[in-house]
Specification:
mainly alpha; single chain; 87% helix; 7 helices
């Protein structure tokens, strides 16, 4: 109930011209998502990843289209659906992250079976760290260590002050 009222308050805080533009924005974003979904569908060979993208973009387009339709019945509901449709975009980012991790894992497994390091890892080891990098890392380590010591000292001082205050107020 509280979350719903916050979305309504957010909608009411928007400028009036933006409130009136929500159906137009929803329809335009829906058309863009549908056109990309059709583009993906018309590809020669769809892999599993493209099918997932196709499904997610189709869901985004349907939700945004429903947002435009709901505007005529209840504008606050249209705002919620617009935000909900756009909230599906992180799924695509997560999909890309999973693909990236799977590529790294595949490269590691291939290199284990071949008995050699992958090319990017080998180049990294050969070129890193230089003496300049070691100096920078050492300086960052020292600064971090000093910061940590300072934080611990402040925490210890604060605890001792609290103990002293409590002992003084007990008497």
């Amino acid at each position: 109930m509280i979350a719903a009222s916050n979305n309504v308050d957010e909608f009411r805080d928007l400028p009036r011209w933006l409130q009136r533009m929500i159906p137009f924005i929803s329809v335009m974003l829906s058309l863009l998502a549908f056109s990309y979904a059709l583009y993906l569908y018309n590809q020669e060979s769809l892999e599993f990843v493209q099918w997932v993208r196709l499904i997610v973009f189709t869901m985004i387009s349907v939700v945004l289209l429903l947002s435009a339709i709901f505007y005529f019945f209840r504008a606050e509901l249209a705002w919620k659906w617009l935000i909900g449709g756009l909230a599906l975009l992180p799924i695509l980012l997560l999909l890309q992250l999973i693909l990236f991790l799977m590529t790294i894992i595949k490269m590691m497994i291939d290199s284990l079976f071949q008995g050699s390091l992958p090319e990017p890892v080998r180049l990294f080891i050969e070129n890193y760290p230089s003496t300049f990098d070691i100096v920078i890392l050492a300086a960052l380590f020292i600064v971090g260590l000093l910061w940590l010591i300072q934080k611990l000292k402040k925490q210890k001082t604060k605890e001792s002050e609290e103990r002293l205050w409590r002992t003084n107020h007990r008497l």
